[in-house]
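Let's do one together. I've listed all components of the complex below, 625 residues spread over two lines.
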Amino acid sequence: MKSNLHMYVMAAPLLTAFLVNAWGRSNRKIIAPMVLGALALSTLLAIIVLKQTLGSGSLSYTVGAWTPPWGIELLVDPLSALMLLLISAVSFIATFAAVPCVKRDLEDRQHIFFTLYLILIAGLMGLVLTADAFNLYVMLEITSITTYGLIALGRGRAPLSSFNYIIMGSVGASFYLLGVGYLYLLTGTLNLADIARYLPALQGSAAMATALAFILVGLWIKMAFFPLHGWLPRAYSDAPDGAGVLIAPLMTKVTIYLMVRLMLTFQSPEFLLMSMDVRTLVIWVAAIGIICASSLALAQRNLKQMLTYIIIAEVGYMVGGAWLANDQGLTGALLHIVNDALMTLCLFLAAVAISYRTGGLGFDRLKGLYRRMPWTMAFFTVGAFSMIGIPPTCGFFSKWYLLLGGIEAGQWEFVVALIFSSLVNAVLFFRIIELAYFSRPEEGASSEHLPLERQEAPWSMLTPLAVTAGLLIVVGLGTGPLVDNVIRLMIPVAF
Amino acid sequence: MEGIVAEIMAKYNYWIYVVLMMIGFYAMIGKRNLVKKLLGMNIFQTSIILFFVSTGAKKGGSIPILDKQAALQGAVDVNLVVNPLPHVLMLTAIVVGVSVTGVALAVMLRIYRKYGTLEEDEILHKIETE
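Okay, and this is what the predicted structure of the assembly comes out as:
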């Protein structure tokens, strides 16, 4: 069905970005209402789009009236509508916490920050919407360039971390572009659905395998799939707090969604992209990645850095789940994209609220936090339980699907890695809960900036945190309808 | 030996693209100076531009500006016209590359103001001793 409703979802943040840049310079007070207004509009429209796609299938918009396969098509089906809703809702919630952080950290550069912030959101939405391989590259670079800028606004060694990310990110994007070039040579088209029509005839050709290998490695660098994850921990932990709450939940997840989307578009039960050996290899790498990243998380002495290694481990969950290529594994991977975005958002919001009050996230600063910030820590605990996978939080259900998928496919190394990582997560988070609940800050030098009286995070940070923690449980309880009505629709029956 | 040379000469543009790509890759991974890393990145991107542009080129092909009448009557021989699409794609890719380079240069400027050097080892040393 032709429609341009989903274009407005993306246009709202994009156009507001320019208005924020133009007006926000002289009048700082209007920045936050404008950003929040645009994102609220996006979220509302995304809900309507999701409802429409569930009723009438996919909506399509042809840019500039150049009909596909020649022109660029922006396509939204139930799954991309779900991602669109996820992006707009997560960014809307994250903005409430970002505003006070940015006000404190980047007093006179707020309009610049929020311009980049909104363009990043629009870019992420574009990634989800586009049905054109080259347009996807452009959107990928729009999100990356804005992220480089946002990270470089941080303090300390942030510029160096951002530079390393630029180098790695550009290699990833270039590999992707190269892969698209080979696909174009082979099929003569850039429309994803159109490419998928020609691919089965090329089965077994070395050029197609090269093309797909380049595309996959490019995306893996962008999503920080172990062993290509080197840039992520420093980049995400050095980013300003206001940017971290947006980038950490969304960037890697949207890239993983792209990989799953390409896999679902290109392959059919009669035509699988890679041979069994390659699949097994990828799942092994994912399993090793999960174990290594979880172990590295154990070695961290800073909450935010610990969370970045958990993100890398979670990337392994989703990549491995998608490559299991059975019904349960794909369901688990797609469900985990939604759940992991919400869990990461919850934990990062809590981390930002803690560092807003204590000025840092080293483990020694977490002592006695349950007394100082009881609500923040309560919601943090919900997020932590979800990360470990304790029902009824949503983290349990997607992990359950992933485990079932691993068992069904007989990939025991993946099952072992998932269980190992859950245990490590339990150790990690109970260590923090123990520190924050039972330990008292030591007497002496450190106690002057850690008074024991209650000092809760400001309302603007606590409310989004409470909403996210609530969402973790609501999504967890609503797993059944979510899987049956949205995610299962997109997975070919024969898997 | 002659066979290999003939093979390379027949597709020399693709060989140049591979060689350029490896040079760029080496500079990005092997060099410790941030400017050299950035230059390596630019060479890497340029090699991909060369790859795309050569895919559109044809021996004896002319510029793709067609006579409307001839095009409508199907009288245009596609083998005599260069494929413009890869070139257009590369215009966009060049814009993307320039933007990334611009951001990287700006970030580098901040690094230099902060640490007074662009050698990665010296910067890391300064961070550790801080």
